[in-house]
Amino acid sequence: MEIAQLKQEVRRAARGDQESAALLFDHYYPRLYRYALARLGASQDAEDVAAETFARVLRDLDRFRWRGAGFDAWLFRIAHNLVMDHFRRSRREAPDQDTMETEEIDLNTPETAALESELAHEVQEMLVHLSPEQRDVIALRFAAGLDTNETATALDKKVNAVRQLQFRALQTLRQRMSHDFV
Asked: What is the chain's Cα-based Rg?
């Protein structure tokens, strides 16, 4: 969605237009869900966070102002806060390997589904070796599709800090991959 169209839809949704709100939901919900799933590891928890994020966005949309990194960063800042609230409520910093579930994959062939499931499990196992801040950056950058500026705003960090966290996370993942596959 282009920025001009996004601004128009946000204004309409803020005034109560159901179609604009539905359009925003359809556009952002999959990215919110992927982000929450990457951080929480459980599909039900990810669905809850994505739904609650959108409920809060729609509730507070009339207070949103176009400045800084924009709507995406504001939206994912809310999602990030909800993920952190989830961790606080469950009294753990991040999911570990034993508590992470593998997302069920509904594909055409059993072989493809098995390979995708195995790959998803391996990726989740590798993410456990990152710090919580690195997992946040990786989830926002790659699962949610935010750019560096939006990620920095969502995490309330400086852009250079986000770049450094991303670099270190990717470096750690590369090392783990080369170690695991050699």
From this structure: 17
Paired tokens of 179? 């170690």
DSSP state of 16: T
Q: Characterise 145 by phi-psi region: left (phi > 0), alpha (psi -120 to 50), beta (else).
A: left
Could you give all domains of the chain from N- to C-terminal order, each with its CATH number? 3-181 (1.10.1740.10)
Report the distance separating Cα 127 and Cα 164, nearest Å: 17
Closest by alpha carbon to 29, among 53, 58, 13? 53
pTM over 0.70: no
Give the pLDDT confidence of 117-147 residue by residue, as tens digits. 565 566 677 778 888 899 888 888 887 888 8
Q: How far apart are CA 60 and CA 56, in angstroms?
A: 6
Using an 8 Å Cβ cutoff, are 85 and 163 in contact? no
